[in-house]
Amino acid sequence: MRRLACLLALLAGSAGAASANDTTAVLGAGGLIFTRSDTIEMQSEDLFISEEEVRVAYKFRNTGRSDVESIVAFPMPDISGDPYANVALPDYASDNFLDFSVTVDGKAIEPALEQRAFAAEIDVTDLLKAAGVPLLPTGDTINDKVAALDAATKAEWTVRGILLEERFDEDGKEVVNHYPLWRLKSTYWWRMSFAADRQIDVRHVYKPAIGGTVGVTFLQDGKAKGEQFDAYVTKYCLDKGIVGAVERAAAKSPEGYPPMTETWISYILTSGGNWSGSIGKFRLTVDKGDEKNLISFCGTGVRKVGPTTFEIAADDFYPERDLDFLILRPYDPQQ
After folding, report:
1. Fewer beta carbons under 10 A from the terminal one: N or C of the chain?
2. pTM as predicted
3. How far apart are CA 182 and CA 162, in angstroms?
4. What average pLDDT does range 174-196 have in this prediction?
5. Domain limits for position 296
6. What are phi and psi of 243, to 5 degrees?
7. C-alpha gyration radius of the chain
8. 237 lies in a domain?
9. Is-contact 154 163, C-beta < 8 A?
10. How far apart are CA 141 and CA 86, in angstroms?
11. Taking a C-beta distance cutoff of 8 angstroms, is the pair 216, 328 a contact?
């Protein structure tokens, strides 16, 4: 994307409020990664993004005279253990925490899953498995599993940066808790054959791990300014239209800040460029959800194609930056 444009959509509808001081980190996922090939062309990529679902449909063609065998991978976003961070995963109990699925020419593929855990950039996967501790540091049972470790293991793992030790006083008695600190890297992968001079349809679907916060973080004293605002202008391409709408909402509010919540969606668009040449035809469709929501993102040639949907289409497209979406959701502070 060589030029940046901002999209403002302020229409009619309603939305609910979130609890105060609630901030959730966004986790960026993306598309498929292929091993390098000079003969496999991506003829088209059709990408749909919403808060509920990400869908990607590719059409590939092997332009060579011989079949090409390739490893295809889908890297899941890294998950880090941190008791002070809040990450909203679609499924906390499953290794497939984004509910990822893939089809090739309409047939479902059962990919393999590679998972490795790291603490201080050292692989501790086997250590966790030997102790019966799940690799997902945010799983439903993880705190109970960590609490069940013996004292010597907890002490050693704390030194190695695998666990975080927290001590505090409760009713005159010292309480010691331990929390997971390791980082989990997960990748789905499978082998795929690209037959010579043949088009192949590959599709995958997953649920995004969205982030967000209560309030509008780029305002200070009811005005858009400061480091956060500057960062948002770069990341989401905020312009005068959307800034004016937010500032007017803040001015009408007795509290001096707009009754809105932020939602963040990220998509890693630049990681999979191992095909031959550019993308023949690229289309992005993004759905902001409710008609009253505001949405801002960077792109060229944005068109509104529905009450809540917007589209970017390009030929001979080569991704130069990843995608980041800001959705501002109004709510009634009296409810």
Report:
1. C
2. 0.80
3. 5
4. 90
5. 1-28+210-335
6. -65, -45
7. 23
8. yes
9. yes
10. 17
11. yes
Please give the span between the terminal C-alpha atoms of the chain, in angstroms, as a whole number: 41
CB 286 within 8 A of CB 49: yes
Within a domain: residue 190?
Answer: no
pLDDT value at residue 24:
42
Residue 232 covered by a domain: yes
Chain centroid to CA 212: 11
Nearest to 205 by CA among 98, 61, 105: 98
pLDDT of residue 140: 74
Rounded distance, CA 212 to CA 63, Å? 44
Q: Which pLDDT band, with edges at 50, 70 and 90, does 3 fall under?
A: very low
Distances (CA, A) of 73 to 19, 76, 135, 315: 37, 10, 20, 25
**Structure tokens belonging to residue 34:** 């292929």
**Alpha carbon separation from 332 to 124, 261, 318 (Å, rounded):** 47, 11, 42
Report the C-alpha gap between 224 and 237 in whole angstroms: 13
Q: What is the dihedral of CA 78, 83, 88, 92, to 10 degrees?
A: 80
Q: What is the pLDDT of residues 25-63, one digit of tens each?
A: 445 566 677 777 788 888 999 999 999 999 999 999 999
137 pLDDT higher than 50: yes
Of 287, 334, 245, 330, nearest in space to 16 by CA: 330
Q: How far apart are CA 101 and CA 111, in angstroms?
A: 9
303 is a domain residue: yes
Number of domains in the chain: 1
Q: Which residues neighbour 315 within 8 Å (Cβ) at sequence distance 6 or greater?
A: 280, 281, 282
